[in-house]
Specification:
The structure is a single chain. The protein starts with 39 loop residues before the first helix and ends with a helix. It contains 4 helices and 9 strands. The protein is α+β, with helices and mostly antiparallel strands. The protein is globular. It has a single domain, classed as Protein Transport Mog1p, Chain A, CATH 3.40.1000.70. The strands form 2 sheets. Strands 1-2-9-8-7-6-3 form a 7-stranded antiparallel beta sheet.
Length: 231
């Protein structure tokens, strides 16, 4: 079990008990290529549950649209639809505190063969490659939400973890000075055999514009745990 930094005490150091699990890294020695197709039951069991992440995590109040993935580019960009042909296995959790919140959205797309999964991964990479490096969004106030204006910077990195290969979109959102706050988001998209894993971890903090020091370690642990369970 491991616990990420709770939003109400975001300055605290994250306590991770899964010390034997390595995070995602493009610098690690390449792992042997896994063989055989992965079934839906295996992927469902590999996704993290709230009790594994920490005692303050719970399912969100509203379920996500099963036909949509999380936004890759951030800003006001639309979330991409699920590439067709696969079965969707998803699990989402939130942890809300006095000074911010954090969310985890896990979606496994299980296809009938390697070709379909590769095509889905390629399509999602094309969307990520079209993301602008930076976006500025004015304040939004309507019946659905009230959010100050912000600037969001975007970076894409290559990933290779336990035979799963792909990329991660890292976004850092800084709100206007009148409403100080920041949000760090990592959307990791990895492919192995007939599966595409889309894993988003986001950390929202009030009163600061700097990136969270433990953010990279946390999203790598979360993603790394899932893919290493599958092998």
């Amino acid at each position: 079990m491991f616990v990420t930094a709770r939003a109400s005490r975001l300055a605290a150091t994250t306590a991770l008990a899964l010390l034997a699990v390595a995070g995602c890294s493009s610098d690690d020695e390449p792992a042997p290529e896994p063989t055989g197709l992965v079934d839906v039951t295996t992927m469902r069991g590999a996704l993290l549950q709230a009790a594994e992440i920490g005692p303050t995590w719970q399912p969100p109040a509203q379920s996500a649209d099963p036909g949509k993935l999380v936004s890759l580019c951030g800003g006001t960009s639309a979330a991409p639809t699920v590439p067709p042909g696969g079965e969707v296995v998803a699990s989402s959790f939130v942890d809300e505190g006095k000074n911010g919140a954090q969310t985890l959205d896990q979606t496994a797309l299980v296809y009938g063969d390697v070709t379909l999964a590769t095509a889905a991964h390629t399509a999602l990479r094309a969307i990520a490659d079209s993301c602008p490096p930076s976006v500025s969004v004015p304040a939004t106030v309507n019946d659905d939400k009230s959010e100050p204006g912000y600037t969001e910077k975007i970076e894409i990195k290559t990933l290779d973890e336990a035979g799963w290969k792909g990329f991660v979109v890292i976004r850092h959102k800084t709100y206007e000075k009148a409403h100080p706050g920041a949000a760090d988001t990592a959307v990791a998209i990895l492919n192995s055999r007939n599966v595409v894993l889309v894993d988003q971890y986001a950390l929202y903090r009030l009163g600061t514009s700097s990136a969270a020091s433990n953010f990279d370690a946390d999203w790598q642990k979360l993603v790394g745990t899932v893919v290493q369970r599958v092998g």
